[in-house]
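pls design
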């Protein structure tokens, strides 16, 4: 086990092994931001994972997405990898973040992908592109959007059309959010 992994898992156990959440009895809107773990229960509403660009971008799209999803008519569980404060100087933080993301990507009923405009010299959001390929390959329910000024926009369109012909790729966050709300309304637990 590498030093970074050992630092992230001092007990030697996976960070996914945490005590269970108190029992819930009805569907309610819930929000989980990394590194807080969500434990699904039978009565919970559908969960949505906010996948896409995090670092090196100007647009804080996650805040807008959370607001729109909580304003939807039906309750939803929001899984947000975009931390308020990422411990950049902690060597184990990267492992913990990726572990959190993989755990929650597989818990979500719907994954919302948004590739915002960004400077290609800073980032092209490679982890989000990997997660998109993973989601397409695993057949998960996804909604995809890429801003016209995202440097790899054409690649997002090509990947989606090759993996799932007919899957729309939206060019605005508002359209992605509207499609996600519709899909969540058809998804039950």
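designed seq:
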């Amino acid at each position: 086990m590498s030093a970074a992994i050992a630092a992230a898992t001092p007990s030697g156990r996976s960070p996914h092994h945490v005590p269970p959440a108190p029992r819930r009895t009805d569907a309610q809107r819930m929000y989980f931001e990394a590194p807080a773990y969500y434990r699904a229960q039978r009565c919970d509403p559908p969960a949505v994972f906010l996948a896409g660009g995090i670092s090196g971008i100007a647009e804080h799209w996650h805040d807008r997405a959370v607001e729109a999803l909580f304003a939807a008519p039906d309750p939803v569980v929001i899984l947000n990898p975009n931390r308020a404060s990422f411990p950049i100087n902690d060597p184990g933080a990267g492992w913990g973040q990726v572990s959190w993301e993989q755990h929650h990507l597989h818990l979500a009923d719907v994954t919302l992908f948004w590739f915002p405009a960004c400077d290609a010299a800073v980032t092209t959001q490679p982890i989000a592109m990997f997660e998109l390929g993973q989601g397409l390959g695993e057949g998960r329910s996804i909604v995809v959007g890429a801003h016209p000024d995202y440097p790899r926009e054409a690649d997002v369109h090509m990947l989606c059309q090759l993996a799932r012909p007919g899957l729309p790729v939206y060019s605005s966050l508002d359209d992605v959010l509207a499609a996600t709300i519709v899909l969540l309304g058809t998804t039950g637990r």
